[in-house]
């Protein structure tokens, strides 16, 4: 086969590999949450999943999208953020419905108003942003409140970005905060394991999926010369995942301690 014939074969193959890598980049981040979503639906129990995962990922990906307006990066990374936002909203919707179903007769909590009892007992208070109760932040009883909070954060962050978009320092800091927030997602789990000297209740399969996904993502950043913030924080994320796996190995020989309630920073 001559060089021209070889090029005819290699060019489509390289294009196919490129498309495959881009597709894996866009959708690979949500794959670990699919079995968690199905498990919550099947058991109607969301105690094993921390909704703070959704909060961290929503903030990180909103900031990443805003960073794109200041410094354009690879399109698959932008679409990955959009897909992750939709996935976290779906997770929040399911978790809220399951939790509220198990708290019938309890107090209702909302983003824009203070606690109110069941509507059957008394009319809910007038909703006002001045009534926001920080003690119950991200523990609301209606999915619409989470959407409202996300929209408020997006609006404020979007306005600040619009006013500061010409500042290179602001844009670079925005990108760094976006990837750093996501990179530190596993730190609470790491601390929880260390404090309890146990990894009981933590899914090793999930951590392995995070590690493989973060490794692929970091390699993608390096090979495609993504902004430096992406590569550095990707490496940090891999190190955190590996540290959690080391903990699982180190604590494997110790007797398990009963936990009062699941405490996790990621889906377990």
Fold blueprint:
Blueprint: H1 3-27, H2 33-43, H3 52-70, H4 75-101, H5 143-164, H6 168-183, H7 187-196, H8 204-223, H9 228-250
Helix pairs in contact: 1-4, 2-4, 3-4, 3-5, 3-6, 6-9, 7-9, 8-9
Description:
There is one protein chain. This protein is mostly helical and 268 residues long. The chain is 65% helix and 0% strand. The chain has nine helices and no strands. Helix 3 (52-70) runs antiparallel to helix 4. The chain is globular and about 60 Å long. The termini are far apart.
How much helix is in the residues?
55-70%
Q: Radius of gyration, Cα only, in angstroms? A: 21 Å
The major β-sheet equals: none
Shape: globular
Structural class: mainly alpha
Strand content: under 5%
Mean pLDDT across all amino acids: 77
Overall strand count: 0
Looking at how many chains there are and whether they match, the oligomeric state comes to single chain
Unreliable spans: 114-131, 259-268
| Straight-line N-to-C gap | 52 Å
Order of helices and strands: HHHHHHHHH
Number of helical regions: 9
Keywords:
single chain; 268 residues; mainly alpha; disordered C terminus
């Amino acid at each position: 086969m001559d060089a021209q014939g070889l090029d005819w074969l290699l060019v489509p193959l390289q294009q196919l590999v490129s498309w495959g890598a881009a597709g894996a980049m866009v959708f690979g981040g949500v794959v670990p949450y699919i079995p968690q979503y199905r498990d919550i639906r099947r058991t109607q129990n969301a105690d094993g999943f921390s909704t703070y995962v959704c909060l961290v990922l929503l903030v990180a990906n909103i900031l990443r999208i805003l960073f794109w307006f200041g410094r354009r990066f690879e399109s698959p990374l932008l679409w990955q953020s959009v897909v992750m936002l939709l996935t976290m909203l779906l997770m929040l919707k399911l978790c809220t419905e399951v939790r509220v179903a198990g708290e019938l007769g309890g107090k209702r909590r909302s983003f824009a108003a203070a606690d109110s009892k069941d509507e059957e007992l008394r009319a809910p208070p007038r909703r006002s942003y001045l009534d926001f109760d920080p003690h119950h932040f991200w523990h609301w009883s209606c999915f619409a409140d989470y959407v409202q909070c996300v929209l408020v954060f997006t609006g404020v962050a979007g306005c600040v970005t619009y006013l500061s978009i010409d500042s290179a320092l602001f844009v670079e800091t925005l990108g760094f905060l976006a990837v750093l927030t996501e990179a530190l997602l596993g730190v609470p789990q790491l601390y929880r394991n260390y404090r309890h000297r146990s990894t009981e209740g933590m899914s090793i399969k999930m951590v392995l999926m995070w590690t493989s996904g973060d490794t692929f993502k970091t390699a993608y950043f390096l090979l495609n010369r993504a902004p430096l913030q992406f590569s550095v924080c990707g490496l940090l994320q891999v190190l955190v995942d590996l540290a959690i796996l080391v903990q699982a190995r180190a604590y494997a020989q110790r007797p398990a301690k009963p936990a009062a309630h699941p405490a996790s920073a990621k889906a377990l």
